[in-house]
Every structure is written in structure tokens, then in C-alpha cells.
Specification:
This protein has 412 residues and is an alpha/beta fold. It folds into two domains: 142 residues, Aspartate Aminotransferase, domain 1, CATH 3.90.1150; 259 residues, 3-Layer(aba) Sandwich (Aspartate Aminotransferase, domain 2), CATH 3.40.640. Helix content is 37%, strand content 18%. The chain has 13 helices and 17 strands. The protein has a seven-stranded mixed beta sheet with strand order 4-12-11-10-7-5-6, sandwiched between helices. Strands 1-2-3-15 form a four-stranded mixed beta sheet. It is globular and about 55 Å long. The structure holds pyridoxal-5'-phosphate. Pyridoxal-5'-phosphate binds next to α4.
């Protein structure tokens, strides 16, 4: 008898038989409101008809046309479409299959382009599970322990996590930037620093948004010292936060942008964007992969970007995010043990704490289980798994938000 590895045990007992919009259905036809969206992947909802049609058509035309060998139409179209939404200057694209691979591509490019060894990472950041990406991940020892030695050259610097320290946002930001300056003076000199990588909202680390002052501070230091700013928008990109990119909240443009998850509505596709001048500094042969920019994934991504634009999903994420947040705050106000509600757009979270304010993963897990009984699927995050997060598809409407809130209130 074969079985899945214990590491792949599901967070819920649900066996998904099919998906439609914001719902999943199990083998017995029971309907679940899916506030996980495949960990923020099925941005246009499960099986959006336009994404399905684009993928089906592509499967019958060309499944794989290896992109270092031949160009194909879906890739050409995707490059043009991304050109409409990427910040000015990030006009050169490279594609991979997962967030971790794209993060590693960004790291390789930064090291090769600058000739410097170190990468600064923000404490609490998550960048993936491949060895280099895990080395840059500091959102929980569970992602790092047991397979050392990790990659060298990673230096950790604070992220403004105001709630954790009971600080206001300004104090947390001042602390984080001063520590960064200290780090550049004491551990990783600018001459040794290739880049700093950061998420606009800490994802696995507990759904903590950055802020304008912090991001401007990073941009200023990167420019002053000649290292690169890499924004990991794997989870925050393609409308998730109520802006097309997470960094649109802060008015700060990266040197390298990393995207994945919501880009192709569930097909494996990720990539990085940078200026052509920067991208050409990658050494020949150092970037690439057999399956990158798979034709079906690219066709699905083109359809996804059309749906996001035509159905105004970025605006919807903003509006529905506000509605959901309002409801979560109302529940928090009347519930002892909820310490914080935070996030941006449709990337929202509730942190559970004990009476003395310590992280309370047991309650978070109990609420997650109780929610399944209410027909609501949720995920945990945070260093202790003490945070329950909500990342529904961007197509969610008011009725589904309110249904989710009803189920949440009962579960809590
Ligand atoms: N970066 C961020 C911000 C993520 O949230 C994730 C996954 O959750 C990754 C990178 C890694 O992506 P993947 O699991 O596709 O390798």
C-alpha cells in the first residue's frame, strides 16, 4: 500500500472533487467556501471558464515548446500583457515554475550583476523551500532546520512588525531601518551586499504589511549603497492586496520583481522582471529550466490577466477586502483571545493570543478545524502557526464574504 508522505498530510480532512469560483466541493457534493485559494493561487476562482477555455485550446495546439529552443505564441502574448502591468523600467522577463525557483533566479541575477556575495533578508520573511530559498527564509525554524548547512551569505535584518513588540508603526519602522544601517556597518558592508529581498506583506510570517516609510528607506539605502532591491511578490502580486502589485501601496519600485501564485490561476508559472540592462548581467547558461514558461501555463496566465482586467478584480479585491476586514474586526472586538486583525486587500489575518499576549497556536488550530465544520476552509501562518489567514479568490462577492464571516464568527 502506498501513501502520501506524512509531510503532505492535509490541513483539513476535505477531499476536493471539483472547484467552481470561490467554492470547493467534496466527493459527497458538500460545498466549502474556499478562503485558501490553493494558498493564494486561484486568483480568478476555481476553474474560471475563460482560463479553462484558454488552457484547453492550448493543450490541443502546443503543450510544450521549450523556451530556450523556440519561441511560442502564449509566451509572446504573456510578455506583452505583463508589459501593461509592470512598473516602467522592468521590461525584461524570465520565467520559471514555482515561487522558490523564481526567488533563486533573482538571487543568482543579483549576485552575478553586482559581483557581491551577500543577500539581506527581513526577519519573518518566507521565500520558499529549495535550499537557497529556505536559507533566505526566516519565518519559522520548521522551514530551515535539519538540512543544514544552508547557503552562506544570508544576513537577517528586522522587518517592522509593530504588533509583536507592542510598538506603533513609526517606532517599528525607525527601529528596522536603524538596524539595517547598523547591519551594513557591522556585518555585511555595502561592498559585500548584492541585494535585500523583502515581501510587501510578510506572508507565511504572519500577514504583516510593510509600510511606505520602510519601503522608501530600503529603496534609499539600496540606491545609496549600490545594492539591489528585490521584492518577492509571489503572494502579494496580481491584485491580491487590492492593488495590482503589493508595492503599489508604497510607491516604491524594485530592481527585481518576483511573481508566481496568482499569475496563472493554478497552473505552475513564476518569473522575475528587471531592466534589460540588469537582466543581461546574468551569466549565459545560469538561468533557465526545462519547463519554464510552459505553453499551457502561459496561455492560462494570459487569460488570467484578461480576467483580472475585464472583471476589475483588483478593485474588487480592494472593496471585498475592506468588507471582510470590517467583519473580522467586529468579531475581534467581541472575542477575547484575538490580538490583532491585519493585512491588505484580500490578504487578511487574525492573530490568536493567550491571556498574557503570547502566541496561541492551539486556539488558531481549533478555530481552523471548527471552520471546516462550518463549511469554511482556512489556513494558518505565523512563526507559531498562531495566525489564521484568509486569501479567497479575487472574484469573491459580498454574499460570499458575508457567508464566510458568518461561518468565521461561529467557528471562533
Ligand atoms: N515567496 C513567497 C512570498 C511565498 O509566499 C512563497 C510560497 O508560499 C514562495 C516564495 C515559494 O513559492 P513556491 O511554494 O511556489 O515555491
Amino acid at each position: 500500500m502506498t501513501a502520501l508522505s506524512p509531510h503532505l498530510r492535509q490541513a483539513t480532512p476535505v477531499v476536493a472533487a471539483r472547484g467552481e469560483g470561490v467554492h470547493l466541493f467534496d466527493q459527497d457534493g458538500r460545498r466549502y467556501l474556499d478562503f485558501t485559494a490553493g494558498i493564494g493561487v486561484t486568483s480568478t476562482g476555481h476553474c474560471h471558464p475563460k482560463v479553462v477555455a484558454a488552457a484547453q485550446e492550448q493543450v490541443g495546439t502546443l503543450i510544450h515548446g521549450q523556451y530556450t529552443t523556440v519561441m511560442h505564441q502564449p509566451l509572446r502574448r504573456l510578455v506583452d500583457k505583463l508589459g501593461e502591468v509592470l512598473p516602467a523600467g522592468l521590461d525584461s522577463l524570465f520565467f520559471t515554475n514555482s515561487g522558490s525557483e523564481a526567488v533563486e533566479s533573482a538571487l543568482r541575477l543579483a549576485r552575478q550583476a553586482t559581483g557581491r556575495p551577500n543577500v539581506l533578508v527581513c526577519h519573518g520573511g518566507f521565500h520558499g523551500r529549495t535550499v537557497a530559498a529556505a536559507s533566505m527564509t526566516t519565518s519559522g525554524t520548521r522551514f530551515r532546520s535539519g538540512f543544514s548547512p544552508l547557503m552562506s551569505g544570508v544576513v537577517v535584518t528586522p522587518f517592522p512588525t509593530a504588533y509583536r513588540y507592542g510598538w506603533d508603526e513609526e517606532t517599528a519602522t525607525r527601529f528596522a531601518l536603524k538596524e539595517l544601517d547598523y547591519t551594513l556597518q557591522t556585518i555585511s558592508s555595502p561592498a559585500d551586499t548584492a541585494a535585500i529581498i523583502v515581501e510587501p506583506v510578510l506572508g507565511e510570517g504572519g500577514y504583516v504589511p510593510a509600510n511606505r516609510g520602510f519601503m522608501e528607506g530600503l529603496r534609499e539605502r539600496a540606491d545609496r549603497h549600490g545594492f539591489l532591491l528585490i521584492l518577492d511578490e509571489v503572494q502579494t502580486g496580481v491584485g491580491r492586496t487590492g492593488r495590482f502589485w503589493g508595492h503599489d501601496h508604497f510607491g516604491v519600485t524594485p530592481d527585481i520583481l518576483v511573481t508566481a501564485k496568482g499569475l496563472a490561476s493554478g497552473f505552475p508559472l513564476s518569473g522575475i522582471a528587471a531592466s534589460e540592462e540588469l537582466m543581461t548581467k546574468a551569466w549565459p547558461g545560469s538561468q533557465g529550466g526545462t519547463y519554464g514558461a510552459n505553453a499551457v501555463a502561459c496561455a492560462a496566465a494570459c487569460a488570467t490577466l484578461d480576467v483580472v482586467r475585464d472583471e476589475k478584480l483588483v478593485e474588487n479585491a480592494d472593496a471585498m477586502g475592506k468588507r471582510l476586514r470590517h467583519g473580522l474586526e467586529a468579531v475581534a472586538d467581541r472575542t477575547p483571545g484575538i490580538g490583532d486583525v491585519r493585512g491588505l486587500g484580500l490578504m487578511l489575518a487574525t492573530e490568536f493570543v493567550t491571556e498574557d499576549g503570547s502566541p496561541d497556536p492551539e486556539t488558531a488550530a481549533r478555530v481552523q478545524r471548527a471552520a471546516v465544520d462550518e463549511g469554511l476552509l482556512l489556513l494558518l501562518c505565523g512563526a507559531w502557526n498562531q495566525v489564521v489567514r484568509m486569501i479567497p479568490a479575487l472574484v469573491i462577492d459580498e454574499t460570499a464574504v458575508d457567508e464566510g464571516l458568518q461561518a468565521w464568527a461561529t467557528a471562533v
